[in-house]
Amino acid sequence: VLSLPSFLATCEGLFLPLEMRGVEESDVEPLAPTERRGRRFLPRFPSLRVPTTRMWSLRSLGPNLPTFSEEALEEAEVNVLKAYVQTPHLRQFWVKLSKYTLNTIVVGELVPRDPLAGEASTTSETDLCQLQGVKPPIVLVHGHGAGVGFWAKQYDTLAEHWTVFALDLVGWGRSDRVVCPGRTSSEVTAWWVTCLEEWRRTIHLDRFTLLGHSLGGFVGARYAMSFPDVVTHLVLDCVGGIHSDGPFISALYYSATPQRLMRMAGRLASLILAWRWPKSEVYNSPTLREYIFQLSAHPRGSGDLAFLYMFRLNMLERKAVWLEPLLDTIEALSAPVTLIHGADDDHATPPWTGKDLCRKINAAGGRCTLFIVPHADHCPHWENHDAFNAVLGWAAAHERNGHEATVMNDDVAQYVWEETSEAEEGKNPTTPHSSPSGKLQGCMQKMYGAMRKRRAGTQDTSVTLID
């Protein structure tokens, strides 16, 4: 006899894609070398070797619209990097771990790790494990649905101060798209953190600065807590998962997984891009749109499906619940922190979430500085890259100064957030319902709470009404 949780889990499994229905890593084998550069793991079952979403695809329509292929994804990534990166010291490597292969971009001058090898070494030119940067390293971790190309506007600025190492996390970008072995939020987070640590050990990085965006910032923060002796400085760009309560609309968006919609739409997926960014000048570049399409339309669901285990939807109260919020464990973070948020981000990571995190870190004895970038939404590194890069320049100088007081020029100082008086802070309350979308969620909570009271005929105290 099945218990209720087992029964619900069984029912839920019926609606999961085939690639997530109990396929173990032991049932996985790599594709043939001609099918992809580097290793990829797919189930042995013939029915799973072809993505099941193709039967629902509209690929026969729109013959002139782009389609996905590994070669097209590689070409799109190269085109984005060529369009925005000027430094000649940019190279791509495949870093092979024990189970996965990760796509890695290095920007900066590299020299052989063995000084006796010199120019006589030939294998060091293609093996990142045998090379090291001339400048201190910084590691870049992308956000949900992104890849190494999304840092294209930062590579030149970062290369002036660091040797840049950017990677596609397992399950994203051009790295291996595999079935995540985790089925809980902690297991999924540990999966990415463990892969990041193995990647670090493989290429022999000792200590580094870590810059992460959104989901990458959350993974980076967890990594810094797990390996405090490795991360010397943590830069979080619109980091997600700060509070336990998240925006309901954004959670619905990620629950449907934009990547799954892309895979199902096939050739018509470019229309989804036009709907997502209809008139945005920042994302209007055909080169960037093609890169986003190729990343999202990859036929193998992986990272986007694993991400679903990190939160759950509360349909009754119309909110999302982040299962392991950073505010609960941020005291374990010892590295200095630089927070960057977009001033116009009202849905994914509003600035008030960064203010709460900054207060919590400083109250716990840490060192945190918050910058709020104007004219930027959830991707300030792309939407206002000049201001974002100016903040990174200050962060580099602050790091060289031992994270002591560092003089800011006016271009950077205007973005710094400082704790204000209680009266002034009351104008911008740090509550989940301070944004317009949050106020709507608060009204919906009131309405559904009142409906529950009327149906029960009693005063229901299990729902907190927001005044």
Describe this structure in words.
By secondary structure, this protein is α/β, with parallel strands linked by helices. Helix content is 36%, strand content 16%. The chain has 17 helices and 16 strands. It has helices at 4-14, 46-49, 70-84, 155-159, 185-202, 215-226, 248-255, 258-265, 269-276, 286-296, 303-306, 351-363, 380-383, 385-400, 410-413, 422-425, 436-456, and strands at residues 28-30, 41-43, 90-96, 101-107, 110-112, 131-133, 137-141, 163-167, 208-213, 231-237, 245-246, 311-314, 319-322, 337-342, 368-373, 416-417. Strand 9 (208-213), helix 6 (215-226) and strand 10 (231-237) form a beta-alpha-beta unit. The chain is globular. The model is unreliable at 1-64, 118-124, 421-449 and 458-467 (pLDDT under 50).
Main attributes of the structure:
467 residues, alpha/beta, nine-stranded mixed sheet, 16 strands, disordered N terminus, disordered C terminus
Radius of gyration, CA atoms, in whole angstroms: 23 Å
Strand tally is 16
How large is the share of residues in beta strands?
Answer: 15-25%
Order of strands, widest sheet? 3-4-8-7-9-10-14-15-16
Helix content: 25-40%
What is the assembly state of the chains in this entry?
single chain
Q: Which regions have little confidence, pLDDT < 50, spanning 5+ residues?
A: 1-64, 118-124, 421-449, 458-467
Which structural category fits the helices and strands? Answer: alpha/beta
- Report how far apart the termini are: 45 Å
**Shape label:** globular
User: Mean pLDDT across all residues, rounded?
Assistant: 78
Number of helices: 17
How does the major sheet shape up?
9 strands, mixed
